[in-house]
Amino acid sequence: MKILELSTILISLAAFFSLVNIRLLKLPTTIGLMVLALVMSLSIMGIGLVFPSIFDTVRLISKEYDFSNLLVNVMLPFLLFAGAISVNVHELLKDKLTILLLASFGVVFSTFAIGTTLNWLLSLHFLGLGELGLTYIDCLLFGALIAPTDPIAVLAMVKKMNLSSITETRIAGESLFNDGIGVVVFLTLLGIQQDGVDNITASSVASLFVTEVFGGVVLGAIMGYLGLQLVKYVENEFVELEVLITLSLVLLLPIISHRFHFSAVLGIVVMGLFLNQNIDTDNRTKGLQRAMGDYVYKFWHLLDETLNAILFILIGLEIITIAEGFKLSYLIVSVLTILIVVIARWIGVTVPITILSIWKKFEKRTALIITWGGLRGGLSVALALNLPESMGGGKSLILILTYAVVLFTILGQGLTLKKLVD
User: Fold this and answer.
1) pLDDT at 311
2) Which of 39, 168, 247, 366 has CA atoms 20 to 30 A from the CA of 389?
């Protein structure tokens, strides 16, 4: 199947599923699309029991296209940029210490807490899964890919909640930055796994981590500043040109980042925050003007909604690929893993908030809301798919555990978050 045909199918499904959700299910868009895509995947698998050729064809199409590459290198930069230009930058800067501490400590702690606990669970040869040969580094890789929340899913849900401005900014900002930190931690651990622990030194790991983080932030700041000067020079007179400028910057930054091994995710977020010069939607800060015209924001909002819809349809369809290596014992381990992930997230959020509450004010149940609002999504699935095939059955287990956590957070936590907030 050609890329144009696949794109046509995905966009058509996004439009149809969105209509069904609006008129019938009336669920939040993210959840509704996920449910419908999941139902479609299960239906295809059911039909495949009677007509195996149909299931084989769909599975072949799913494997033919690199979902991991499509999300990380194509969709994610656009979605992150759209999210970054919609965040209240003034609130974010006022509370930057809270957001950075939540993002950094939360991801690092969750990575090691989840990875260590999973490694201990497998060492018990629980249900025979210890025979899969997952090493401690492999378990940490799972911890790294599942620790960061998905900014696309989180931002889509937060916008529908009745939260205060500061709490909303904390959740959105933490999600945007922990995504970038999570990818850096994952890539660092992946390098250790592939090169071997014996060939890795502390200085080389530190160098890789600093290069990814510092390089990504600096590159994003430079391109954001240059982009800001360009759109200010245009002065909102030629909105089409402003759209082209932002599009070209979002496409260009990942290419430069990959060339110098910088974090494209952090770079995109920082660049978006630089270009986000109008956050005064409630007229709370006088004298601000938009760096870009309303047309540009509407364009990115439309692109965000479209790609968001396609993303969660792709996540729903991935069950066709993941279900291939499913075993009944994986179900029990998945339930335990979900519990581990939620507890690790809660501790990773509660500790920074407890420390910061000495001199900062937090709303009641902030830690609980941020914990339960930590939805996982396409990034976790894409990183799991990016694991090396040399892991064998271990990769299948990690894929299924990842998908189980993603499903639980989006469907379970996503559907109950509003009740928790209210």
Assistant:
1) 83
2) 39
Q: Which residues of 150-172 are buried (b: 16+ CB within 10 A; e: fewer)?
A: bbbbbbbbbeebebeebbbbbbb
Residue in 32, 10, 5 with CA at minimum distance from that of residue 19:
32
d(CA 58, CA 48): 10
3-class state of residue 92 by DSSP? helix
What's the average model confidence in pLDDT over 101-124?
91
Classify the phi-psi angles of 125: left when phi > 0, otherwise alpha if psi is within -120 to 50, otherwise beta.
Answer: left
Instruction: Tell me the pLDDT band of 282, cut-offs 50, 70 and 90.
Output: very low
- C-beta atoms surrounding 133 within 10 Å: 11
3-state secondary structure of 219: helix
18 compared with 158, residue with greater pLDDT? 18
Predicted structure pTM score? 0.86
Task: Supply the DSSP symbol for 157.
Answer: H
Burial class (CB in 10 A: 0-12, 13-18, 19+), 278: middle
Count of alpha carbons within 13 angstroms of residue 152, beta-carbon side: 31
Of the candidates 360, 358, 409, 354, the residue with the CA atom closest to the CA atom of residue 381: 409
Chain length of the chain:
422
What contacts 125, CB < 8 A, 6 or more positions away?
A: 131
Contact 310, 14 (CB under 8 A): yes
Please state the separation of Cα 97 from the chain's center in Å. Answer: 22
Instruction: Give me the long-range contacts of 137-141 (CB less than 8 A, separation at least 24).
Output: 137/189, 137/192, 137/193, 137/197, 138/193, 138/391, 138/394, 138/398, 139/114, 139/115, 140/111, 140/112, 140/115, 140/116, 140/189, 141/115, 141/186, 141/189, 141/190, 141/193, 141/387, 141/398
